[in-house]
Amino acid sequence: MLAAKYELDSTNSTAIQVNSIRNHITGLNVREIERKAIVEIQLHRQLDQLKALHEFRSEMMQKMERRYARLKKCANELRVELAKVLKLNLQLTGQASLTELSVSELESLESTLENGLQQIRQSLRQQYKDAIESKVETCIVCLTEKVSMVFLPCRHRVLCGNCALRVNTCPVDRKEIHDMFPTFGSI
Ligand SMILES: [Zn+2]
Ligand SMILES: [Zn+2]
Fold first, then answer.
1. Tens of pLDDT along 78-110?
2. Distance 161 CA to ligand 1 centre (A)
3. Which of 31, 80, 90, 112 could link 95 by a cystine bridge, Cβ 3.0 to 4.6 Å?
4. Ligand nearest to the CA of residue 141, numbered in listed order
5. Taking the model in full, what pTM does it have?
6. Is residue 94 part of a domain?
7. For residue 187, is it within any domain?
8. How far is the C-alpha of 110 from the C-alpha of 28, rounded, in Å?
9. How far is the CA of 114 from the centre of ligand 1 (A)?
10. Ligand nearest to the CA of 148
11. Domain that holds residue 41
């Protein structure tokens, strides 16, 4: 009888222990599952952010590539234009052979040069005229030295001694200089 009671008590005690352990394990599992779920949610969020970042980056890369292609095209066009301009410049300054040009190309070049020369002459005249009218006593060529030469026969007095020695015609009226002599003081 006693033995039977002990056995029963023992069985009850074991059952209680098993239940307690089961509760403990169940409690642990729930917390573990919750923790894992939170971690999983965080990982999903991070993954979404990474995907968005990746999309943004690849979009930017595509934009940069398109921009690069446009710039490359522009640079090539400019290179072609520059080659044309350089060639034209060599022809205009007489440094390139003109034999390969056709009659119409030569005529066009001639009229371009004539127009340019006309504009340069007009501009020079205007500057000489302005210098004379403003009665500035500095040389109209070097713009630094004082005027010190008078030309004959036109009697213009616009250049310094150094600049006067380098010209054969008067810069104001293009008349040939037959003689020149130094002047002193103001007019
Ligand atoms: Zn001068
Ligand atoms: Zn003169």
1. 999 999 888 888 877 777 777 888 899 889 888
2. 7
3. 90
4. 1
5. 0.37
6. no
7. no
8. 99
9. 28
10. 1
11. 32-89
